[in-house]
Specification:
Layout: E1 2-3, E2 7-10, E3 18-21, E4 26-31, E5 36-41, E6 46-53, E7 57-65, E8 71-80, E9 85-94, E10 100-109, E11 114-123, E12 130-140, E13 146-155, E14 160-166, E15 170-171, H1 172-180
Parallel strand pairs: 1-3, 2-4, 3-5, 4-6, 5-7, 6-8, 7-9, 8-10, 9-11, 10-12, 11-13, 12-14, 12-15
C-alpha cells in the first residue's frame, strides 16, 4: 500500500503488511491494535507514528528510511494492568543522508504489570548526517511491575548524532508536578 497524500491514517485500516510513504509528504499513523507492519519512508517525508498499547499481546513495527532528509517520530504510550503482559518489538533503519529517527516511550506501570520491549536502531554505512533521539519514561502506579528492555544500537556510519534521555522511575505525583511546573 502506498500513501501518497499528507494526512492522518489508522494502521488498522491497512490490510497489507507493507506501507510506503511517498516523497515530500507528512503523515501521521495511529493505532492501538495488534499489527505487524513494515513502513518505508522516502525522500523529504515526515512520519509520525502514535501507538497506544494497552492489551496483552505481541506488537511489532519496522521502519526503513530509504532516501535523504526523511524524519520519523515514533511515539508510544504503554499501559497495562492486572497481570497483563505486553511484548513490543521496534526496528528502525536509516539508509539515507540527513535523516532523523526519534523514539519516545512513556510507560504507566500498574499492579502485576509486565512489559518486554526490544528495540533496534540501525545506521547503515556509507551515509552521513544522521540523527537519533531516544526518550523513555516509566511511571509506576503500584508495586509488582516488571520491565525488560533489550536496546540495540547498530552504528555502521561515523557521522551520527545521538541523544538519549532515560528518565529515572517516577511516581504519578512527581510526574504530575513535573508537568504542572513546565
Amino acid at each position: 500500500m502506498k500513501i501518497k497524500k499528507s494526512w492522518f491514517y489508522k494502521l488498522i485500516d491497512f490490510k497489507e503488511n507493507i506501507i510506503e510513504i511517498e516523497k515530500n509528504i507528512s503523515v501521521t499513523l495511529f493505532d492501538n491494535g495488534k499489527f505487524d507492519k513494515k513502513i518505508f519512508v522516502w525522500k523529504k517525508s515526515e512520519v509520525y507514528i502514535c501507538w497506544l498499547l494497552e492489551k496483552q499481546d505481541n506488537y511489532k513495527i519496522e521502519v526503513f528510511q530509504k532516501e535523504k532528509k526523511s524524519k520519523v517520530f515514533l511515539n508510544y504510550l504503554l499501559f497495562s494492568e492486572n497481570k497483563e503482559n505486553l511484548k513490543v518489538k521496534i526496528f528502525s533503519k536509516i539508509e539515507s543522508d540527513f535523516s532523523e529517527s526519534n523514539l519516545d516511550i512513556v510507560s504507566f506501570a500498574s499492579k502485576n504489570w509486565e512489559i518486554d520491549l526490544d528495540w533496534v536502531l540501525e545506521f547503515e554505512k556509507g551515509f552521513s548526517k544522521m540523527i537519533w533521539k531516544l526518550e523513555e519514561e516509566n511511571i509506576f502506579l503500584w508495586e509488582g511491575w516488571k520491565i525488560r528492555w533489550v536496546p540495540t544500537l547498530l552504528v555502521k556510519s561515523s557521522d551520527v548524532k545521538k541523544y538519549c534521555i532515560e528518565k529515572s522511575p517516577t511516581s504519578v505525583s512527581s510526574w504530575v508536578n513535573e508537568c504542572i511546573n513546565k
